[in-house]
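Lecture notes, unit on protein representations.

Consider one protein chain, 124 amino acids long.
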Amino acid sequence: MDNLYSEFLLDLYKNPLNRGALTNAELQYKIHNPLCGDEIELFIKLNNNSVSEVGWEGAGCVISQVGASLLTDYIKGKTRSELEKLSIDEIIKISGLNLNPTRLRCYLLSFSALQKILHETRYT
């Protein structure tokens, strides 16, 4: 995708996937990018150690919001073990975008929140 703000991205920004807070989420984390002001909060419910529901709330640029939509849709049904094995390259690949380092930081904000959740709850 050459055009950063393609029709697909704008549609996903206007009609985000999985947007909304989840009550009684077992896993939750809010992250903020101080460089640009983007914010994402992830909410994850587990059933038998797999993601049964996922939601997010946030504000920011098109890329950070699209990143949250794509990530949350991608992790549905995955086990905690599968989540821990996700790589940055895998998350970038699901976007189909070629992003510069600044935009990549925006796109990966929700993935950073997921990594924090997993790290902070590793032994609970």
